[in-house]
Design a protein that fits this description.
This protein is of the alpha+beta class. The protein has a single domain, classed as Anthranilate synthase (4-Layer Sandwich). The chain is about 35% helix and about 35% strand. It is built from 16 helices and 25 strands. The chain has a 23-stranded mixed beta sheet that branches. A two-stranded antiparallel ribbon has the order 17-18. A hairpin with a 4-residue loop joins strand 22 and strand 23. Helix 10 crosses helix 16.
């Protein structure tokens, strides 16, 4: 097996703390303007404009991509192309895997879905602390779940099922502490004994470029052409289905519910509009709707951005072993806004209505049970625990019921096995998942792309951290597609569910200049 040595170099950024956010903004804007591949992951505090931390990944080395035709490695620079040649055998599809294994744990352990990715990850070797801070970053499409369940995809599927990239540099900013550092991933082929990628001089040159970007805008504290970048007219809006058509889809789904095919199903629709400047729209979204999981991914002329309130799966190594956590969110009410101003009394009444709504509670508890059952597929014994139950989290436009479930993984399961066992969250599919997936494609008749999938990273030590791709937009050739869905149960009101999709889409559409 090819062995790739990994070393992480850290260089503190010596700059006044007040300029760290500006430095990050300018560097990200530069990457966006020049259409270079990069990823920006940020965490915000709901109800506050204060960011907690940001991670900007740039200068890609190697991408691993899964499509309907299988896995592909893509080298972005000379080393990446060299790695692609040396690792091409690693990503060959698995053979001889049993498709009709009855035992669930054995079937999952033998699953070929992530075999090539798992073998690729095992090629990297280094100090544990370095490996924990070197990441493959990107997104998992919603339609990856269909492949796992052997469900045929719609013909309009045009995005990778999985798209992860290892970057050379990561600029990490701790906004709370006012600190920043540049991290460089240095790779070498261990059997050749020489380093092939990265040195302190290269990192220092990048730092100098970053400082120059900041110096050029110190006086203005903002990009020079922000006004020119702004939207000059209200964009048009097109829907994949109007309220009446969506309501008819809900009515058809309720027949499946009455027939006992599913207990719940999440049905979505798309809102499409112009997006001349995705990065500006992302900045607006984060300002208007700060969320724990903010992301901007630019790759191959496409952009995926969003501000998600909901973590998907997190797996990390602890003293007790591999710990996996899920965070179901289900149950939504609009915030108590009157003409754009928060009415505290109205807000509290809506929270009370949400907490006491029998339908919302039943739907949420069903999804908590689904999360527990998903984790049971890879958990050790009966150690699953519900950490939070039916709490309320607030965002700029909506409030949600939230819970948290955790479990310790049983050997030989790893983070990728846990991801396969739990993907994607029941809050975006329904239950039971396989039949709900089939019905989603039958009713919606379109691929969902990355909506409802996951965004995040897996580090070279095998730890995974992902968020659900919601409150998001996919941008291609100046057009943005925003998707939003609602959980359908037997007593769902089609008009109410259609309105819920509008409420959920409103934050992203507002950032795009569209008012619903």
């Amino acid at each position: 097996m090819v062995s790739i040595g990994v070393e992480l170099q850290r260089l503190p950024v010596q700059l006044d703390a007040s300029y760290h956010p500006l430095m990050l903004q300018r560097l990200a804007q530069t990457q966006a303007d020049e259409e270079r591949p990069f990823v920006l992951l940020e965490s915000g505090e709901p109800g506050s404009d204060q960011k907690q931390q940001s991670m900007l990944f740039f200068e890609p080395v190697l991408s691993v991509r899964l499509t309907n035709d299988g896995y592909t490695l893509i080298g972005h620079d000379p080393l990446g192309r060299q790695l692609t040649e040396k690792l091409r055998l690693v990503t060959k599809p698995d053979t001889g895997v049993a498709n009709d294994v009855i035992d669930e744990a054995e079937r999952l352990a033998q699953s070929p879905l992530f075999g090539p990715l798992r073998r690729l990850m095992r090629c990297f070797r280094g100090k544990q602390q370095d490996m924990r801070h070197c990441y493959f970053v990107g997104a998992f499409a919603f339609d990856l779940a269909a492949q796992a369940h052997r469900i045929a995809l719609p013909s309009d599927n045009d995005v990778p099922l999985l798209d992860l990239t290892l970057y050379r540099f990561c600029l990490h900013v701790n906004h709370i502490a006012g600190r920043a550092e540049l991290r460089q991933t240095v790779l070498n082929f261990e059997n050749e004994g020489t380093f092939h990628h990265g040195d302190a001089l290269a990192a220092s040159a990048v730092l100098a470029q970053i400082h120059n970007l900041v110096v050029n805008v110190r006086a203005k504290q903002a990009p020079e052409n922000d006004k020119a970048r702004d939207f000059t007219a209200t964009p048009s809006l097109a829907l994949s289905m109007d309220d009446e058509q969506y309501g008819q889809m809900v009515t058809r789904a309720k027949r499946s519910l009455r027939a006992g095919e599913v207990f719940q199903i999440v049905l979505a629709r798309a809102f499409e509009t112009e997006c001349p400047n995705p990065y500006l729209a992302y900045q607006r979204l984060c300002q208007q709707n700060p969320s724990p999981y903010q992301f901007f991914i630019q790759q191959d002329g496409r952009v995926l951005f969003g501000a998600s309130p909901e973590r998907a799966l997190k797996v990390e190594m602890t003293s007790q072993g591999w710990k996996a956590r899920l965070y179901p969110i289900a149950g939504t009410r609009a915030r108590g806004l009157v003409n754009g101003v928060l009415d505290s009394e109205l807000d509290e009444r809506r929270e009370c209505a949400l907490r006491t709504d029998a339908k919302e509670q039943a739907e949420h508890l069903m999804l908590v049970d689904l999360a527990r059952n998903d984790l049971a597929r890879v958990a050790r014994g009966s150690n699953r625990r519900v950490i939070r139950l039916l709490d309320v989290d607030r965002y700029s436009k909506v409030m949600h019921l939230v819970s948290e479930v955790e479990a310790t993984l049983a050997p030989p399961f790893d983070a990728l096995a846990a991801f396969e066992a739990t993907m994607h969250m029941g809050t975006l599919i329904g239950a039971p998942k396989p039949r709900a997936l089939e019905l989603i494609y039958q009713y919606e008749q379109h691929s969902r792309g990355f909506y409802g999938g996951a965004v995040g990273h897996i580090n070279l030590a095998g730890e995974l951290d992902t968020a659900i791709v919601i409150r998001s937009a996919e941008v291609n050739q100046g057009k943005a597609r925003v998707m939003a869905g609602a959980g359908i149960v037997l007593d769902s009101d089609p008009r109410h569910e259609a309105e819920e999709t509008r409420i959920k889409a409103s934050a992203v559409l507002s950032a795009l200049g569209v008012a619903l």
